[in-house]
Amino acid sequence: MISKYFLWTSVLIVNILLFSSCLGSSDNIEYPTDPQIYSLSLSSRADTASLLPGVAFTIDQVNGKIFNKKPLPYKFHVDSVKLSITSNPNNYYTFAAVEIGLFKPDSDKDSMYYWRESDSIAIPRLRKIKTTAADGKTQKEYDFQLNIHQADPYIISWQKIEGNYIAGAVESQKTVAFDNKFFTYYRSGGEIKAVYVPISEATNKEKWVSINNIPNTLTLSSLIATENTLYAMDATTGNVYRSSNGSSWEITPTQTDYEVVALYGELPFTTPGNILVVVNHQGELKFGQANTDFSNITPMNRIPDNLPVKDFSAIKVESGISYATKFIFLSGGTTNNNIQNNDIWVLQQDNGIIKHIVSNRPEDGTIKGSSLFFYDNQPYLVSSSSGKNILMYSENWGLHWIKSGENQSFPSNFTVRTNASVITDTNHYIWIFGGISSTNTQIVDIWRGRLNKFILN
Hints:
Structural class: mainly beta
Number of strands: 33
Distance between the termini: 40 Å
């Protein structure tokens, strides 16, 4: 079947030649020989979410392929689309012809036919596009592929890492990521010990290395990591320990005027290394900003009475697309008066003071013993509800929280826990280390999970 598009082009060419002949012109018209497709777009009335117009197609001129690198959402489907194809924009003449190849369900060959712009295309069957340049001779063929997620990209697939990476009894523990390694510090038999492993080797229990001579007065729950330094509170004083390698620790020269009560983490919006802390300033608990070695602490505004200062979970949150979206989140823990914190706090520095809000969250999520982490450009929380662990996340930077669906539930053999260490890595894995069971015993295991969309990509 030859389209009107092709016939009218042919007629136009013949008429121009006849017209030139009648005038006695000796000029020869040279038609473009470029058959390449320069852009392609799709649209469909059935696409009620208007996803197709936003699809960016890659046109591989060397290998003759047209495809979308970013797949359309799982279960996306339309039967027919309108196709828009653009030739070289520098040429006055467009293609002499465009042929479409549709896959035949009952054959291993494609059905080719001439296309005109008003045609609807059965997009699930579209396999090839063949163009003929305006010269009527030069042709190019492209394989076409519309990529659609074939599995739910928002399922988190979980794996338990086999093998015990800590030897002996464990009374308390915390794991941090530092210097491309996981460091697990734990109290056993009245001593604080540690093991570490390169993140890339963490699934191999034989690669974990023991560290000795860790100060026994480290408060494990206070451990925080910056790019270059680990910090932890001293259990008996208002002093702070620091380490540049995870194994050697020293007391920082904390100013005696300001007893440090809590370590929240590295402050966004400031020079890297500045730490947000809580200090006792003239009998009041205030936010403070400490430099790298804690030789200088600047008191700030007073903290809210119900803000947690012990045994909390904290993360630094920075958006990759918004400069102003930089926060520290807190959950769980207890206040200075040993009152349980049942809120999620969002802290942000603004002109030398720390502003704060309390998040709205689902009623069935327990904040006690919860663990924060940042994943897929969103804050997440490991919480518990009805005797099992659940995930919650926020789509608006902590203002409101949503309970994850069944596609992000934990496996049936995942032991219910609180106070777990949850860390994400550059390969989009979520790591969960240990925690405390419902019978108040320490769990020594490792779980690793990842969203399907990162596996598919």
